[in-house]
Write a structure and sequence with these properties.
The chain is built from six helices and two strands; from the N terminus they run ααααββαα. The chain has helices spanning 30-54, 60-71, 78-85, 89-101, 123-143, 149-168; strands spanning 105-109, 117-121. α3 (78-85) crosses α4.
């Protein structure tokens, strides 16, 4: 018997919809649909970038780490880079180990605190990052073709607001 041929009466879990869970007709409601689409867009965009960068021996995570190093203030530490990206230190450490082995980044000892490492791209790192930016710019141009600049700017402001609220904790439920 196929799932489509099951009647609502024969489904033992049917009474949960509209009581415990939102009704099937209302799912997903607009706010949930928005957050689902944000997550899906991010995941699919990253997968597309990975697919295109893989041919050159790179990945979205490598590009993200390298771009964060390149555009951070001089002398930024590994910990600051991890915070800027929004990942845990150990996750970044693995990426940096690979980038360092490939000659893309350098870890420089902090003369004031030898526990800290300052991050810097090498000349090869800058060239590789430029190549990655070129690839992602082509993808971005195709993705946003036909979308008005005003709509892009508006969506960017909206997403910035969401990120700010998430990072400040204002989207977390307060104690009642």
């Amino acid at each position: 018997m196929s799932a489509s041929s099951l009647s609502a009466a024969s489904r033992p879990d049917e009474d949960v919809y509209g009581t415990i869970l939102p009704a099937r007709d209302d799912y997903p409601y607009p706010e949930l649909s928005l957050t689902i689409r944000i997550v899906m867009a991010g995941r699919r965009w990253r997968a597309l970038i990975d697919e295109h960068l893989r041919d050159k021996g790179h990945s979205a995570s490598r590009m993200e780490a390298m771009a964060s190093i390149a555009y951070s203030p001089p002398g930024a530490t590994q910990i600051q880079i991890a915070k800027r990206i929004g990942i845990e230190g150990p996750t970044l450490t693995r990426t940096l180990d690979m980038l360092e082995a490939d000659g893309m980044v350098e870890r420089l000892a902090d003369p004031k605190d030898r526990r800290n490492k300052h991050m810097r791209l090498t000349r090869a790192g800058y060239k590789a990052l430029a190549e990655m930016f070129e690839i992602t710019q082509r993808l971005r141009k195709h993705l946003l073709a036909g979308v008005a600049e005003s709509e892009i700017a508006s969506t960017d402001r909206f997403l910035e607001l969401l990120v700010d609220r998430i990072e400040s904790g204002t989207c977390e439920p307060g104690e009642s």
